[in-house]
Structure formats: structure tokens, C-alpha cells
Amino acid sequence: MSATVRRAPRLVLGVTSLDLPARAARDRSLEVANRFKESESLAVALVKALEAGAEALYAVPSSSLRAAMDELKRSVPVLARLPHLPLGDDLRHEHPLLIGTHDDNPDVWSGVRAGLAAVSMLPATLQGDLAVRVAQRIEHEAASLGTREVIGVAIAPEITDLALAAGHARFFERMVRFGRARFGGVAGFETRDLAHLVLRLHEWGIEPDFLIAAANPAGVGMTPVPLEVEAALERPGIPVLVTELRGGGVGSLADGARYALEHGAMGLLPELVDLDDVGGELRALRVMLG
Amino acid sequence: MTDKPLPQSHSPDPNSDDRRWRLAVLGLGRRGLEYAAAVARDSSCDLAGLVDSRNDLRGFARGCGFQAPLAVSLARLLERGPLAGVIVCAPPREVPALACRAIEAGLAVLIPGPPAADLAGADKLAAALSAASRPVASGNAALTHPLFARAAHVLAEGSLGAIVSVRASVQVSRVFGPASLPPAGDVLDHVALDLVMLLDLLFGPAHAVSARAERLYGDTIDEAHVTLELGAGPPISFDCSWSVPGYPRAAMVLEVECKRGRVLASDDALELEREGTPATQRTVLAGLIEGHPLEWGEAHATLQEFTRRLSHGMQADDPLDLARGLRAVRVLDAIRGSAATAGGSREVPA
């Protein structure tokens, strides 16, 4: 794969903690969810974030985010975490990608909308590949985010780590190509297994535009062990956006950011659940990023 | 799955130091794929096969990139090579038959979910268990969760004195209308089972239950309020619901009042109050979990516990003892029976 000239955003506000389980004390998660229950309050936070220097939101397609974005008169760049696997699917036996979507739209491949991105998927379609199912789902879900605002896509960690464990190099290659072609932006992967992912991507010669992974001084979420994750962060080649900077709430945001940058992180992805003063704290991170 | 006679046991020499456990996953739904990924990732294991009678699930597993042999049945897979054990991730109704076939073949067995859907299944599996030559385990994350393990240790050391009362709850936000009900099972199967197994581990088997159930969106039980009677110690009351907003992840809480203190344990934090000590001692999960296999998810953590049993065998009163899972199935059945009589006491069959 040729060297990329695409640049992933360096400061991103994560709002996935409003819709997905976050690594934070339960009281804290409930408090934040309550604080942003009204779309107006979330909209205000989004504006403050962008004004403080956040280049994008990291988000899943959700009605709460859509409502907040509709409140705003300005475009909000979104780095989409896809596919979005609804939590309720864990009550079903089948894998969520086999269940289909939970709205009225048929979960079908839209070759028209996907354009050249669909063409790149043809060989995988013939093989029943995971990449096709993921691309179908992304195509379907991106529409609800407002595709004009999607500046890139990060494959959700549940899918990234499944394909990684299975050693499915082609999946990573196909998703990078699809993500870039479909959105004209950046394509990357979120993982809970950064050390192995970086190792394998280098072996396979695949260069996504970014990876997203947890890192913090407490070592929370840094699997299998923090030393290996630090080595992966420090390895040149694939930029990493670091999330879970507070390690589930045991440390400060500033310490987490300092730690991440010292170990080679390209950018920072603080989650809403880790912020008390969205504007002020993001502005401070912007300064740290330079 | 076919009923062909199985070849003889293919367990490797458990005394060999350089062994890698050849494990197969039976049932390729969501949980099965999580375990397949965990086995593939574990350096002490080889993913030796993936079994499901459904074409679409086998096809999906292959599409995910797993290169291990696929088979429609355990018997077919065993024709292709030896196994040390299987992880049974099939729907609960299919688990007893599959696990019995594996036990019969001399394999070790891990059942991460409900070991049976009903009493008949539990009885069938219990009968097979006596003939097991290798570890047969049922597990969930609560049984080896670091905070509950610490709570168990505090209670067992006895410094807080006799237990006066135990209350527990498990809640998750999943079902808020008929459309979000799963195709099979109720809140007891999907949410309460893990808690019932944890209570059994910490306080011993329940002998009788009384319960009231709420059916919010149809015939399925959505909430239950349960009292467990134990042979010794105070009764345990617990609530479970899958219709509470604000809990994207299941929240399990255990509150134990003792004569000289109190333990408040959850999968989030542990609070310890000791008589004569003014400050509450609080431990949060995030401060405890670095390097814990649970960081990689429930499948990885449970698999690690299982492979430890493959090396060293099951302990006496092992947290992963399948008998505990089977007792939990019987408790759930008694809860349903009690709820049907508006809270009348029901004995838990032995």
C-alpha cells in the first residue's frame, strides 16, 4: 500500500460514551449522560469543543447526536466509529452483523451511493468476506450521521479485534481502501489490542491513516501489558490517537495527555465522560499538542 | 448435529510442558466468535476447529478470517484430528447434548453461558458429569472478577464477623418494549444467571426461593424480586431487571452487612466499612485491573481460568465447577415457579 498523505485529526472529542459503555465509574457515566440528555446541552458542548480546537467528533450514529447536530447551524466534522453494533444485540445468539439493522431501511448494499468503494469490494463479496458485511453496515449507518460531515471512519474495536485475532489481513486492507474511497477522508481502526495490531499491520504492509487505542499512566486498558503498548505507540509508521486518557477516572486528563504524547501518540481523543469543562480542558490539550 | 459414534479421547499429555491446548468452539454465534478470537489470541492454545450445524454461522466465521477447520458436528471435527477440549457456546437448549457428547469423547469442556435451558437439560448434563475424566467448567466473568474476588476474600477471613444480611441486584438497559425482547429467554436467563452463580459461590447453594416477577412488555419476565433461602445464614434478596435506563453495561451490586462491618461490592468498585475504622476503604476497578485478563474481555478472562484447570485440574469447590451452573439453572426454574404462584416458596430441586 502506498504511503498516505492523508492526515488524521490530532484533537478529537469522543462522544461515544453517551451511547456505549465507557470505562468510568458508573456514577460518573450516569452523571454525564444526564448532563447531556437534552440535545441543546450537547449542542453547546460540541460548539465549545470545536471553538477550543477540536478538529472532529468521534461518534456513533445515534439519535441524540443527530438531534444535537441539527441544533447547530454549522457543519460538525465527524470521525465515525462504525459499524455501530447496538447493545441490545448481545441478547441474541447470532453475531450482530448477521442480525441486520434496527430501523426500517433495508440493510442492502447500495452500489450507487458507495460508487467506486463498492467496486473495490467485489472480490470480497464473492468470498462472503467480513469486509463486505462491515462495508454494507457502514454504508447504511453513515447516512444517518450525515455523510457530508463524515471526514473519516474508524472501524469499531469489536470488529477490528475479531479480524485481528483471526489474522485476516485482507480485511484491514479492504477496509482502508473502502473507507478512504467512500468518504474521501481518513480510514483507521480502533482496537483494544494495539500492540498486536501494530505488529501485524507492519508485517502485512498495511498502513491505515490512524489507529485509536487506550493509553494512560495507570496502564488501564493497555493490553496485554503497558510496556508492549508503549512500544507500539513509539514505533514509527502508523499514527495513534490515544483515548481513555484518564484510565477510567483514576488519573488526570493532563497527566494522561502528557503520557500519551511522550510515548509517541499522534493525537488525543478525550471522551466526554472524562471532561468537566469541555472548552477549557480541550483548549489546554490543544496547547499541549502545539 | 449428528449422532455418529465418537472416536476415542484425543487429549494431549497433560504432563508435557510444551503443550498447546487444541480447543474447538461449538456454536458460532456472537459468544462463540468471541471465544474463537480469545483462543486464537492465547499463546497456550490452538484453535483446532469451529463447529456449528448452521451453514450461515460457519460461513460467517470463515468470512471473519478464521482458518481453523469447520465442521457440522463434533464427531466430524474429531475425525480430522485430536482435541483437548471444547468451548460450548451454542444456544442454551443445545448445550446439554453437545456437552454430553464432548464428555463422552473424553474432552475437557467449558460452558461460558447458561449450561441448560431447563431442568431436563440440567439433569441430563448432571448425569454425564459423573463420568467426566477431564475438567468440565461453567464460567462467567463475575466468578473471577477481581472486585468480587476481593470481597469474597474479606468475607472469608472473618474479621467482619457473622453475616447479618445480604442484598444484591443486577441491572442493565436492554428491553424497553416488545420489539427489543430477544427471541428466546427472559431476564433470568440473560441477566440473573451470573448473579445467582456468584451468590452460590460466595454464600452456598440456595435450598428454596420465593419470587415475584414483572412482565412489562408481554409474557416474558422483565424484572424479578427474589429471596433465596440458604441452608445456613440469613436469606439473600436480590432484584434483577433489563428495563432500567442508564446501564449500558450490566451493573452487579452486592451489599453484605456483617456484625462488625459492611461490604459493598460491584463490578465497578468495592467499599469496605470496618467497625472502629472511621473511613470507608474504597477500591475502584480501574485501579486494580492493569494486566488482568478481564481487560481483554470476558472470553479471554474465562478462557485463562479454563486453561489453568486444563493444566492443574479443578479444585475442591472450584469457582468454575459446572455443578454450580447447573444449580443456578435449577434456582431459576424455582424462581419461575414461585413467581407463577405470586411469591409462594419453592424448593430448589437437588
Describe the protein.
The complex is a heterodimer of chains A (290) and B (350). Chain A is built from 14 helices and eight strands. By secondary structure, chain A is α/β, with parallel strands linked by helices. In chain B, helix 5 packs antiparallel against helix 9. In chain B, strands 14-13-12-11-7-10-9-8-15 form a nine-stranded mixed sheet. Chain B is built from nine helices and 15 strands. Chain B is of the alpha/beta class and 350 residues long. Chain B starts with 20 loop residues before the first strand and ends with a strand. Chains A and B meet through helix 1, helix 4, helix 8 and helix 9 of A and helix 1 and helix 2 of B.
Helical fraction of chain B equals 25-40%
- Looking at the structure, what is the overall shape of chain A? globular
Biggest beta sheet summary of chain A: 8 strands, parallel
Strand order of the largest sheet of chain B: 14-13-12-11-7-10-9-8-15
Distance between the termini of chain A: 30 Å
Task: Show unreliable segments of chain A.
Answer: 104-113
Strand content of chain A: 5-15%
The class by helix and strand makeup of chain B works out as alpha/beta
Biggest pleated sheet of chain B: 9 strands, mixed
Structural class of chain A: alpha/beta
The coarse overall form of chain B would be: globular
Q: List segments of chain B where confidence is low: pLDDT < 50 over at least 5 consecutive residues.
A: 1-17
Strand order of the largest sheet of chain A: 1-2-3-4-5-6-7-8
Give the total of beta strands of chain A.
Answer: 8
State the order of secondary-structure elements of chain B, H for helix, E for strand. Answer: EHEHEHEHEHEHEHEEEEEEEHHE
Count of DSSP H/I helices of chain B: 9
Work out the number of β strands of chain B. Answer: 15
Biggest interface reads: A-B, 52 and 49 residues
Q: Please work out how many helical segments of chain A DSSP would assign.
A: 14
Q: Regarding quaternary structure, how should these chains be classified?
A: heterodimer
